[in-house]
Design goal:
Layout: H1 16-25, H2 33-37, E1 88-93, H3 99-109, E2 113-118, H4 121-130, E3 137-138, H5 145-150, H6 170-173, E4 185-197, H7 205-209, H8 217-221, E5 227-230, H9 233-245, H10 256-273, E6 276-278, H11 281-285, E7 293-297, H12 298-302, H13 311-314, E8 318-321, E9 331-339, H14 346-356, H15 359-369, H16 380-386, E10 420-421, H17 427-443
Parallel strand pairs: 1-2, 1-3, 5-6, 5-7, 9-10
Antiparallel strand pairs: 3-9, 4-7, 4-8, 4-9
Helix pairs in contact: 9-10, 9-17, 10-17
């Protein structure tokens, strides 16, 4: 039997919600990855210009893309080196890569692959900084990557080993946050919309799209006890900003008044419906019927049929909508691969990145995880209808006839043209977001 990545057999007993609640209850401050990295040297790379011997952290934006800096004492590996004997050590979110794909890589290169996991990026960065445990491949977000680079915790990539980078959408081969892909290559891409069940919330996509502001669905139609948002500060607060400001909202704002207004909007919503604030709401609680409406990452919604007790009867009721396609604004984000400076197997790590950017291997991983790589070869409509050649028996075709309604959850390169991208914020500005969200969470249902 092939378990899905979010099968109950894989779940941890301590959820993000439990972790945060316990921390707030005991008055323990939760340091962000930025705060942790800010302590990594004289002055710390908390943002802006460097202090002392610490380089600046270069945060790129779509309007002001950046080249991440190179250092003489942190050079890329040479070309034409033989891969090491391993074991290759992967450091990633739990269940965010299919173990079968890792086994395939290990078999091809004759090495062992170890998969180590972290609970959140704060834990991951703290462990990487200690140097007590060495990892080869890490999966940062685009806001954490520049901080890793400034702290010299990531190493530059040698593209001679990664020809499959050409399989990725051209815009992400040279991304604004890492021009030239000096330190990273894309892993998955997803947008943040919302999902619901029409049997519990009788609205069709066309009705939601016709609203003056579709983000109002939470405040106007959210069912009591069955409405949810993610336990992630930027995502949850950004949704509230779109509710308040429509397409004019800026999910990268550092205006304290706007962040405060978003916090208050979430508190108002919680007072109305008793919000569920969790990380597994979309891919588990919607198909299980515990939630009717949830903020949803597109990849999570593509995983929902795995959890329906009876896909033939239930999966057809699942819906996903991302308002940006209709001009209402919305966020796209992507996760990354990076190779750590302390990697014991840097050549092997480069081969792993190239292996995972192969179209077939990336699609195989997509078939299990539900999160897609931004592949130029991917035709979403064809994949949903017919599957991917050679992967019969996986993903969409396993629930054939129950996935057409989730086609909007597949991301296209055209979506980037209408999306807002989260970008990194200096520590002081990021703290405005994390503190506001902590205040909301302290009183959330």
């Amino acid at each position: 039997m092939v378990f899905h990545p979010r099968d109950p057999a894989y779940r941890r007993s301590l959820t993000r919600r439990d972790f945060l609640r316990r921390s707030l209850a005991t008055g323990v401050a939760l340091p962000s990855a930025a705060a942790i990295l800010a302590a990594c040297g004289p002055g710390g790379p908390g943002g802006g210009a460097g202090t002392g011997n610490t380089p600046e952290v270069r945060f790129g934006t779509p309007d002001k893309p950046v080249e991440l800096q190179l250092f003489e004492d942190n050079a890329a590996i040479a070309s034409e080196l033989e891969p090491e004997a391993g074991p290759l050590v992967i450091y990633n979110w739990e269940n965010y890569t299919w173990k079968q794909v890792l086994k395939d890589f290990g078999k091809e290169f004759g090495v062992e692959v170890k998969y180590e996991t972290f609970y959140n990026l704060e834990e991951a960065v703290a462990k990487i900084q200690t140097g007590e445990v060495t990892f080869d491949v890490f999966f940062p977000t685009m806001d954490v990557l520049p901080k890793l680079v400034a702290a010299k915790l990531a190493q530059p990539l040698n593209h001679d080993y990664i020809p499959n980078l050409s399989n990725i959408w051209p815009s992400l081969q040279d991304p604004f946050y890492d021009l030239g892909s000096r330190y990273s290559v894309p892993y998955t891409i997803y947008h943040t919309g919302f999902g619901w069940r029409t049997d519990l919330l009788p609205l069709e996509v066309e009705e939601v799209a016709a609203m003056s502001n579709p983000y109002d669905i939470f405040w106007e139609h959210g069912p009591v006890g069955k409405t949810a948002v993610y336990d992630v500060p930027r995502d949850a607060l950004a949704m509230a900003m779109y509710h308040l400001e429509g397409s004019a909202a800026d999910p990268n704002t550092v205006d304290p008044a706007k962040i405060e207004a978003a916090k208050n909007a979430l508190i108002e919503l919680d007072d109305r419906v008793g919000l569920e604030v969790n990380i597994d709401i979309a891919y588990v609680q919607i198909p299980e019927g515990r939630m009717a409406l949830s903020q949803s990452w597109s990849g999570d919604m593509l995983a929902t049929p795995w959890y329906a007790a009876d896909p033939a009867a239930e999966a057809g009721s699942f819906r996903y909508y991302w308002p940006a396609r209709d001009g209402f604004g919305g966020v796209i984000d992507n996760d990354l691969y990076a190779i750590l400076k302390g990697a014991k197997n840097p050549v092997l790590a480069h081969h792993f990145l190239n292996f995972m950017l192969d179209n077939f291997n990336a699609m195989k991983n997509f078939s299990w995880v539900g999160y897609q790589a931004p592949l130029s070869a991917l035709d979403p409509a064809d994949v949903i209808a017919n599957g991917w050649p050679g992967l019969e028996g996986y993903f969409s075709w396993e629930y054939k006839g129950h996935w057409d309604n989730l086609l909007p959850a597949v991301v296209t390169d055209q979506d980037l043209e209408v999306a807002t991208r989260f970008h990194g914020l200096p520590l002081a500005e990021e703290t405005l977001w994390t503190n506001a969200f902590a205040e909301f969470r302290a009183g959330a249902s």
